[in-house]
Amino acid sequence: MFPYPSAEGLHVGNLYAFTGNDIYGRFQRMQGHEVFEPLGYDAFGIHSENYALKVGVHPTVLIPRNIANFRRQLDRTGLMVDWRYSVDTTDPRYYKWTQWVFLQLLRRGLAYKKQAAVNCVRSTRPCWPTSR
Question: Which residue in 7, 34, 76, 94 is a FRET match for 109, CA 20 to 30 A apart?
Answer without folding.
Answer: 94
